[in-house]
Amino acid sequence: MIPSLTGLLPQEITDKLSLDINFRGKQIFKWIANGAETFDDMTNLSKELRSHLNKTSKVYSTRIKQTLVDPDGTIKLQIELFDNRCIETVLLTDADGRKTACVSCQAGCAMGCAFCQTGMIGFGRNLEAGEIVEQFFHLEKKAGKLDNIVFMGMGEPMLNLAAIKKTIDILCSKEGRNLSKRRITLSTSGIISGIYDLADNGPFLRLAVSLTVANEDLRKQLMPVTNTNKLQDLKNAIKYYTEKTGIRCTLEAVLIHDINTNDKAAKEFINFAKGIDVHFNLISWNRVPTLPFREPTKQEINYLMGKLEKAGISVTLRTKRGRTIGGACGQLGRSYAASDNT
Ligand code: SAH
Ligand code: SF4
Q1: Which of 24, 197, 263, 313 could anchor a disulfide with 19, C-beta 3.0 to 4.6 Å?
Q2: From residue 18, how far is each of 5, 27, 173 by CA, in Å?
Q3: Strand partners of residue 209
Q4: Mean per-residue pLDDT for 206-227?
Q5: Helix axes 161-172, 129-143, angle to 10 degrees
Q6: Which of 279, 274, 286, 271 is nearest to 316 (CA)?
Q7: Of 35-44, 261-270, 326-335, which gets the smallest average pLDDT?
Q8: Position in ligand 2 atom list of the atom nearest CA 110
Q9: Is residue 292 helix, strand or coil?
Q10: What pLDDT, on the 0 to 100 scale, is given for residue 1?
């Protein structure tokens, strides 16, 4: 169990700290949502209680190890966990000034996608809810109030769904940060059971599925998750999600030079999208040193976009952000690898 309070709801704080007045748990919860990192900040608690809590408990279990800022405004934090592992979290600001936290849910990732830096590291462990919540609050302290949160950092969120749900309960609590559920996006490599779980049990989040290629054999090579989560079943799950929640899913595709930008790939994408209400978000592959892939050319990107648009599919291209600090999609984890080597 992580020795901190950020992963707890008000009643759990009351219980964990053995507080004699129930209301104290709510007060502490509220303080944490407002950015308090120590009990000393919580000025409506008595001095005696604060000093007792300082001796017996901790608010946070993580600390910022390094802050990196890209010229485009993207901020990447390297965060050290209580067991000395490192994870990364990113703040993205769009053209309208809206701020989005891109948080990690695992140290490393077990999925082994061939094009991803995080996949290269392998799996460390699942993060606890508090460790995810703290990423959000660390970023809010750097950048002011955030508008959105996306589970698109290190790791596969569907394989740590209990902690994700708890994180959402905490951040969306009216007694605390009161974030709207409509401002939360979860990105999965295509874990079908997780999609059904969210559709049946909630919370109803914006769902992004990292399709990348719609050819079963090629996808098995690039994304081994396909071995146990077949494309047709994935498509059925996406359909079910939209029917159940009324939410249109996003299909993400990392475009890689000479791999998934040709006519055949376009046809397979179009075929996959037939009969489901989806939006395509294309991501230019971000370079990961040591991997044998190349970034797509402008012509390749435009060709594919044109083909999808012509087929009546809604499609956008994600702007490149945070690349000089290794903070773009698929680049997270170098510091984790580094801290492992020391
Ligand atoms: N594990 C989840 C969420 C984290 S990865 C998932 O795979 O969906 C977030 C996104 O980054 C995914 O869409 C993934 O396909 C993409 N990605 C991985 N490596 C990349 C790279 N090198 N360049 C661009 N995008 C990449
Ligand atoms: Fe894991 Fe997502 Fe990277 Fe695949 S793309 S290895 S699922 S983090």
Answers
A1: 24
A2: 13, 14, 22
A3: 188, 251
A4: 98
A5: 50
A6: 279
A7: 326-335
A8: 1
A9: coil
A10: 60
Pocket of ligand 2 (CB under 6 A): 109, 111, 113, 116, 118-119, 155-156, 189, 210
Cβ atoms of 220 and 227 closer than 8 Å:
yes
CA of 203 to the centre of ligand 1 (A): 22
Q: In this predicted structure, which of 30-44, 58-72, 201-215, 328-342 has the lowest mean pLDDT?
A: 328-342
**Helix 192-201, helix 161-172: angle, nearest 10:** 40
Q: Token match 């940060």: residue? A: 177
Q: Under DSSP, is residue 222 helix (H, G, I), strand (E, B) or coil?
A: helix
Domain boundaries, the chain: 10-56, 63-325
pLDDT at 328 over 80: no
Residue in the block written with tokens 């460390």: 124
Q: Are 332 and 74 in contact (CB under 8 A)?
A: no
The protein residue whose alpha carbon is closest to atom 3 in ligand 1 is 152
Per-residue confidence band for 334, with pLDDT thresholds at 50, 70 and 90? low
Q: What percent of the chain has pLDDT over 90?
A: 89
CATH topology of domain 63-325: TIM Barrel (3.20.20)
Instruction: Supply the residue whose CA is at minimum distance from atom 4 of ligand 2.
Output: 113
Q: What CA–CA distance (Å, rounded) separates 309 from 273? A: 12
